[in-house]
């Protein structure tokens, strides 16, 4: 089934415009989700809103939103008042600047989408933008009213198309100084740096999201399948706490383990011939298990 666009409009750069569509790039639909049940009756639970003081259920039509201006003092708003503050969109994703990809701070990234052409008439303009961004290694900053809010969008070339990432506003990103205020200055020994560089060099790899393992999700799936089949899953044994060693000793051990591992994996060379360079190991494909079922 073809994906459904979550937004359709026009991408506009000066006098150039062409129709585009946004598609969600990240989904949590495959995650295991649970429902609430009454332990005694086995019946599903439902969420209701009740009056804090009377304890009586409040119907949806009688529910309004409020903002606390002082402790236990609120300003109440009708739905129409809040709706009137939502800016009107013109269905345009207007590009106002181009920036070098190296300048992009990922702290401001909120949610990614795929940006695709919405119709054959968009092919030429879409292709021109994609190739220009790719060859110049730049991204486009655009503004639009998306999902009832004014948003800043970062448009980048990605494979055969474009991505559009919603950006957080500056006031939403906390200053790094708040998190790093208590970090004390330290002086790092040269041998430690050399050992750390060696470990990094021996464990150099490439970014491959397919190799990431969601151990929690896999364990929950196994638990669900076992319970559905009437089996009992034994909890894993608790790991014994490791002996605390100094940072220098830990680095030395790690460097030694990496060197030993590399030497063990090196194929022996035939007499009089140099050993052939090792081929990169093929990533093992995850074996497909039974289809997932959402837990109830």
UniProtKB/TrEMBL annotation:
Any GO molecular function: double-stranded DNA binding
Pfam families (alphabetical): Ku (PF02735)
Organism expressing this protein natively: Ancylobacter defluvii
InterPro entries associated with the record: DNA_bd_Ku70/Ku80, Prok_Ku, SPOC-like_C_dom_sf
Region listing for Disordered, in residue ranges: 256-296
Taxon lineage: Bacteria, Pseudomonadati, Pseudomonadota, Alphaproteobacteria, Hyphomicrobiales
Quaternary structure note: Homodimer. Interacts with LigD.
Stated family: Belongs to the prokaryotic Ku family.
Official protein name in the record: Non-homologous end joining protein Ku
Keyword Nucleus appears in the UniProt entry: no
Taxonomy, superkingdom: Bacteria
